[in-house]
Amino acid sequence: MKENTGKSKYVMLGMLARMPQTGYTIKKWIENEYSHFWQESFGQIYPTLKKLVAEGLAVTSNHTQNGNGRGQIVYTITDAGRKELSDWLKEEPEIEKIRYELLLKVSFGENTEPEVLLGHLDNFIRRNDKLVKEMNGYIELCGQFKEQDIDCSYSQLTALCGAYIYSAMRDWAVEAKRIIKEKEDDK
């Protein structure tokens, strides 16, 4: 399980501030919109939602969906939850911690063959190309929502950040490949 930084509470409050949701819809939304910079597991989501209810920051209601008779718990933010979210948004963000195993491997690259690193970098480039496309697709989707008078400008900004980050990482990997190949050619 991912380390709980205590921010799950605010992720859930932010999601509920948009609209009432189930734990499942929160998980799917996080996977689709935030996966380039934030992850939450079901093991974090459901206990956090229960805690929000216990603290009076959210309330629950049961809804039957699609006539299948199966009830789902829908969570809705309270006024106290909106205040808690607003207070947190005013706090200075913590400094981000980045972990890329690829960077460790490149750093220790003198201990392996250049082809190994070049292969890792090729995979990294492909992965980042795919992620840039996903972010650009989300940005485009937000544009379509705007045409329907649905404002997702702030979500669009997070996708734009993802597109810039993944583009920069891809560009770095291309340059790293060039430098490794040049180093080998000099031998």
From TrEMBL:
Signal sequence, renumbered to the chain? none
What organism does this protein naturally occur in?
Lacrimispora celerecrescens
User: What name has this protein been given in UniProt?
Assistant: PadR family transcriptional regulator
Q: Where is the Transcription regulator PadR N-terminal domain?
A: 12-86
Q: What is the lineage of its organism?
A: Bacteria, Bacillati, Bacillota, Clostridia, Lachnospirales
InterPro entries (alphabetical):
Tscrpt_reg_PadR_N, WH-like_DNA-bd_sf, WH_DNA-bd_sf
